[in-house]
Amino acid sequence: xxxxxxxxxxxxxxxxxxxxxxxxxxxxxxxxxxxxxxxxxxxxxxxxxxxxxxxxxxxxxxxxxxxxxxxxxxxxxxxxxxxxxxxxxxxxxxxxxxxxxxxxxxxxxxxxxxxxxxxxxxxxxxxxxxxxxxxxxxxxxxxxxxxxxxxxxxxxxxxxxxxxxxxxxxxxxxxxxxxxxxxxxxxxxxxxxxxxxxxxxxxxxxxxxxxxxxxxxxxxxxxxxxxxxxxxxxxxxxxxxxxxxxxxxxxxxxxxxxxxxxxxxxxxxxxxxxxxxxxxxxxxxxxxxxxxxxxxxxxxxxxxxxxxxxxxxxxxxxxxxxxxxxxxxxxxxxxxxxxxxxxxxxxxxxxxxxxxxxxxxxxxxxxxxxxxxxxxxxxxxxxxxxxxxxxxxxxxxxxxxxxxxxxxxxxxxxxxxxxxxxxxxxxxxx
Length: 430
Known about the structure:
Blueprint: E1 3-7, H1 9-13, H2 18-26, H3 33-48, H4 54-65, H5 69-80, H6 85-88, H7 91-96, E2 101-108, H8 109-116, E3 126-129, E4 131-133, E5 139-142, H9 153-161, E6 166-171, H10 174-181, E7 187-191, H11 198-201, E8 206-208, H12 211-217, E9 232-236, H13 241-249, E10 253-257, E11 270-273, H14 281-286, E12 292-295, H15 305-310, E13 314-317, H16 325-339, E14 360-367, H17 372-382, E15 387-394, E16 398-405, H18 411-419, E17 423-428
Parallel strand pairs: 1-2, 1-6, 2-3, 6-7, 7-8, 9-10, 9-11, 11-12, 12-13
Antiparallel strand pairs: 4-5, 14-16, 14-17, 15-16
Helix pairs in contact: 2-3, 2-4, 2-5, 3-4, 5-8, 9-10, 13-16
């Protein structure tokens, strides 16, 4: 059976509600603009939460817009910069699955098509409303004959299309859930990267904080190997909000606690500590998934840095208590998780490198003993892997190698790399 992916546009494919943005453009000079913005946003939210019929919400919003085709051009420029990050980084997926991806939206083709077409989505697979304009380009109405302008419009459209295959719906609003309620789709994924509506989340088959998560749970090709929302970042102590916000904005799963609670030890991937905090050496040893530790102060006598090195944990700390390190330390942690960069690490060889497109990046951390690199490259040769680039740095204790490959691979490759004697940690970045 063929799979089809039914994707919403507003607050899903893009970070914003397009009609709300259009209003901010078209009513920019209106004396009562703030009051009208509020009305439009209220109509949007009432419909998304299932508290007002979609047709009534749409009619009221279009009436308030006072927009024209010039405003639409400005909107399109804005929306192209507001594509949701996880959709943007998975452009390759849309290119390779162009026949299976459908954009189904209560928004309007006039602004949806120019935005999603950049991502290899076929124009014939874009289903949305259309505006009615006057001869001078003023928007006065919309096509009421389009089923997507009606309450339950997505359900009506999909019934008419009668697609043969398994359908998966991704969206943030009530009209997306209605597809699941109707039985037309196999699963409904509540998309919460931009907004989380409790009334929708509680009805979803699965909550997907990013498109990476959707691809991951469905075992589909993706830009990053492991969704960031599954990477647990534990923050301990009196850490400033700006440090926390930087990591939260990047999509990591954040937990802010007063101390290193037992329940997080087995699953924590990142650890950020306030100045003065300590970590019990026993807990540190048990944190087998921990990859990086940031310390907002000097970690000396607070953290067993030698033990971190032995476990393959990259440490970033602030020896001089520089105020800029409120951002600098979290940024170093973020960059390590995203690209493998160890620049300014306290215990690892400093390696700074760019992301290489259309490659898979593998990280191998090992004890610095002779012959390891020969064994690593023998494994790649045995699996017929072509290497795009390889970066190696060592210090007296460890070797840190990043390898970019362009070939498809199987899980056996990873098992072979992990089995190499003196391996400390192995990770696939993307």
